[in-house]
Task: structure prediction
Amino acid sequence: MSTDLARLPNRLSLVRGHYAAAAFHVFAKAFGMITLGVVIGCVLFFLLLPTLIVIPMSLSETDYIEFPPSGLSLKWYRAYFSDADWMAATWFSLKIALATTATATVTGTMAALAIVRGRLPFRSALQALALGPMIVPHIVLGVALYLVFSPLQLTGNFFGFLIAHTVLATPYVIITVTAALQRFDPALELAALNCGANRLQAFVLVVLPNIAPGVAAGAVFAFLASFDEATVAFFISDIGGKSIGRKMFEDIDFNLTPVIAAVSTVLVAVSLLLMGAIHLANAQKRN
Amino acid sequence: MSGLSEVSQAVSARQPRSTVASARFYSRGVSVCLAAPLVAALVIGFVYPVTRLVALSFSGGSLEHYRRLVAEPLYLGVLASTVKVAFIVTIASLLLGFPVAYLMARLRHGVAMVVAACVFIPLWTSVLVRSYAWVVLLQRNGIVNGLLADVGITDGPLKLIYTEGAVIVAMTHVLMPFMILPIYSTLRTLPPDYIRAARNLGAGACRAFISVTLPLSLPGIFAGSVLCFVLALGFYITPALVGGPGSMLMATLIGQQTTVLLDWPFAAALSTVLLAVTLIFVFLFRKTLSLSKGLHSVH
Result:
């Protein structure tokens, strides 16, 4: 549709008999489009390749890493699920991620309400500080938390991780819930109040159902921010308590086995299922 | 929905104005209570630890650790190469990412969804998984070397991994979605009529792109570039796994000081410098970044 008018000069040039010029123009245009297409195709391949390559590697039959794999087997998945260290790290991370999801979602939703609908002193300062953990390099935060946690014996500890990951995950909840609250019409809440509801009833029955998609998206981001986190976990893990991120980091660094590919595939599947579900739910709501 | 809000506005119009305002906003006490858990979490898990870290770097009331940092050319070299790598990664992400963002904004819905999936899938994949994939791809008898030998370009395996090049490639891969998405959200709001108007006035495709599309997409380009650059400055996982001793960055140097040399005060000084550089950059570009907006378009 956009090209009809743009083509007009070409047609005029044909009428005038500049056949050679027109042919050259068409050729140059086609060549440009093909070049652009090839470049973009290569970039998309570059983006997708590392994620997708771990799947065939996890199914390989050989001990060393080989691509393409010569035979298919599930032995690396069996090795992962029967290894005590990997399982301990997985359960530890799962517990932390679920607890972090709960604390970050509640804390973040409350804070978003205060930021959007409240009368707060130092509102913009709080908003900037709340997003701080996203901007401050995670290695700086990791070293800082280690210094504070180590004397308190909070390293390798569930509560130490919970504090660190709540700080890291809450900004995602604040961002999604703030956006949802800004789309919400406060007049609806006012209507509920006018009909006799108290503040809490109005929130639970009117506000919460309306911002629920934002809260749910925030919860998913919080879960993944904790479960996939590796830099801070690298510093606050110890022999007694190791997250799956720290365990993976060590294994990639010291013994590169296809078990890591199996673990990676599981992590990719978890991330894609959760994020895909959120996107589908949002897309459905929009329609 | 709008009908209901009109009714409620009509109802509220009859009430004193202060009631409307108090219904729209929570009271000060409620607001402070709502924000209290966040403030507590930030103080315990963010402000206090970072303050302690900065204090440790000045331990003994001296600038000893900073003096050492400035005196040793090695450390200044690491700082310079951190900024250099972050800059190269940002430029590479921009050059490779812009055409993808452009395509996403221009294509029909169905095809654009496929391109968007190619951008979102790596974004949602754990950084560890992606770094692992790059280790496997680039290692001595890895996939890239195997492919090069099979095609006959190289005789023996090239040293690809544990080099600065490997760090740049892997970091560009990790950070490119942070460039593509802000540019995409700017381009999507650009009305196609502007380009059509330029073409009608006689501009060629290139001219229309340079004089119309490019200037109007600058806010997205700036937001994406600042985001990419800031994230690249403090990156740890990818350079630690893909890089080597010859491609040390600030984050990997801090990691080495803490885990191998156990020199915590010096690591604290390095961390403070990295933090300061990051914050100065964010402060300088806070307008172009419009932080929450830029980060939001990513998710």
